[in-house]
Amino acid sequence: MKALKINIIVLLMCCSAALSGQSKGDYTFEKMEWQNPLLQSSNAAFMRLSDTLLTTLGGSFTDLNAGVLHKAGSFRNAYDPKSSTDAVLDVKSYTRLGKLYLSGSFGYDYTWMRQARLLGLNEPARSPFMLTDTIPGNASDEFYRLQAAAALPLGEKFTIATDLRYTAGMMAKKKDLRNLNTLMNFEFRPALSYTAGPFTAGVTAGIRRRTELIEYKQIDSSTEKYIFEISGLWTCNAQGYSDSESTRSKRYKQTASYLAGAALQYNTGNLVWTAQFDMDRSNDKQGETKYNNFKAGDYESLLLNGSTSLQFGLKHRLSASYSNEKGAGYKYLQRQELDPASMVRQWVDYARYNCYSDRYSNLDASYTFRQAESLTSISWGATAGFGMSDRERAYTEYPQRFCQDYRTLSASLSFTKYLYFNNLNIEITPSAAYTTSPDGTMFDTVNEDEGHISITSSGTKEFVLTSALRQEYGYLTADVLSAGLKLRLSRQLEKATIYGVINAGGWAGSVTDCTDPSSVTLQKRGCSSLTIGFIF
User: Fold this and answer.
1) What is the pLDDT of residues 264-301, one digit of tens each?
2) For the segment 159-198, what is each residue's pLDDT rounded down to a tens digit?
3) pLDDT at 202
4) What are the C-alpha distances in Å from 64 to residues 29, 70, 506?
5) Which residues contact 108 (CB under 8 A, 6 or more apart)?
6) Residue 458 confidence (pLDDT) above 70
7) What is the pTM of this model?
8) Where are the domains of the chain?
9) For residue 225, how many C-alpha atoms fall within 13 Å in the half-sphere facing its CB?
């Protein structure tokens, strides 16, 4: 509650300062970050680099917007809904009060989903373990997001800062089996920066705490429903649902993360080189919320992100980023035993063993050219990008080991034309991208003593949700052609700028049937959005 009050106070200070400012012309956060790339970093102390720009803007800059986003189509992952509609409200602000630099944001998201299934967690891809059901039904989620950061210069060279982020929300399914998920995310990250001539360096460290409580209920008891306990690669066991205390239908998910980052910038005015590095070490635990202490599994991961950019004046930028994530999932050897003191059966664990591994790496590179005379006077711009990724996953249910791997290559191109008519500015951005997967293995079953064997559930305690496995693998490895068109109109008022953004796009994926490589289906998905906002 204390963190929530701090966020609200800082946000109100930012907005009240912004309301007294002058017209911001055609500035946007994207253009501000072009001039100061480190504003996109996780280090709040780099807000000091926006001093010159904030002076030009009257000491503050605020963007308040609301919008709606709709997605629909058959090209989707196993846990994606058939269609979804999002309503979003966002406000973000930078301001300077004396020597103190402040930033704050508030966001509200409400999403209505149709025909969602296998959505037992709010973000299923974050962990191999999940409690879920297979019945499609409508669902909704609602989130509140708060962020506040403050940076204080200590002399000419040093700056200290702190960044607080808080998210709260819930997700609920409207059809039996009904799951209600309650979520909370809190992040605290202090930071330090040092400036000497053209060089600026900074370090940051922090912690993140994420909790999610899941509870399943059934309203209509005339039919039997099943809960599936996923262990990785859609291997699972199932049990009939019952609201009795003996059935595992409630679960908690707790994630503790330790964060660290470093960044370096060399800026001569005409040439800007930036390098950034971030680390995220997370430990995820899942178990029952009841008294008997059943442990569903632990997942430990290490995520490393690195990026660099080289910018020449207002026209040229080369950028590249690399990420590598390794994760390991652990299950427990446990059984129920009678506690002689309370005469109640409780789960007792004897050992923890590694059952799941995940390795993912991704590399992206791009070049941007803008025909620009100043930060806000741009004739046109274009960006070309290339990316490649590689992933390997494995789940072990001794003596069998289930393996999956795939690689993807992608290329993208976008072009933006800027038009100016008195107080009306127009931006038109067409874009296109293509992604292909040159090779991969959906599900390779290996016996540790005998080598490769056929996929079978005999001799194992678990079975595979083959429909979900095939849909997910087909989605991740499809040859995808996407295209989009963005139209942004902004009009300058006396003390503000009103703008509207229309986005329309779609994906067409050639999905190969994993059981019959000669059978390929074309699946499509479309997306459209409308955003209206004010900059002041």
Assistant:
1) 999 998 899 999 999 999 999 999 876 668 899 999 99
2) 999 999 999 999 999 999 999 999 999 999 999 999 999 9
3) 97
4) 12, 21, 27
5) 88, 89, 90, 143, 144, 145
6) no
7) 0.89
8) 2-535
9) 23
* Three-state secondary structure readout of 185-249: EEEEEEEEEEEECCEEEEEEEEEEEEEEEEEEECCCCCCCCEEEEEEECCEEEEEECCCCCCCCC
CA dist 242 to 221, 246, 249, 430, Å?
9, 8, 8, 52
Predicted confidence (pLDDT) at residue 149 exceeds the cutoff of 90: yes
Cα separation, 134 vs 121, in Å, equals 13
DSSP string over 431-442: EEEEEE---EEE
Give 248's pLDDT tier (boundaries 50, 70, 90). Answer: low
- What are the respective helix, strand and coil percentages of the chain, to the nearest 5? 10, 65, 25
- The rounded mean pLDDT for the chain is 88
399 prior amide bond cis, ω within 30: yes
CA–CA separation, 76 and 136 (whole Å) = 14
Query: How many residues are present in the chain?
Result: 536
For 311-336, b/e burial (b = at least 16 CB within 10 A) is beebeebebbbebebebbbbbbebee
Asked if 198 and 267 touch (Cβ cutoff 8 Å), the reply is yes
Q: Name the least confident of 409-423, 445-459, 520-534.
A: 445-459
389 vs 520: CA distance, rounded Å: 23
How far is residue 443 from each of residues 391, 403, 518, measured CA to CA in Å?
13, 6, 18
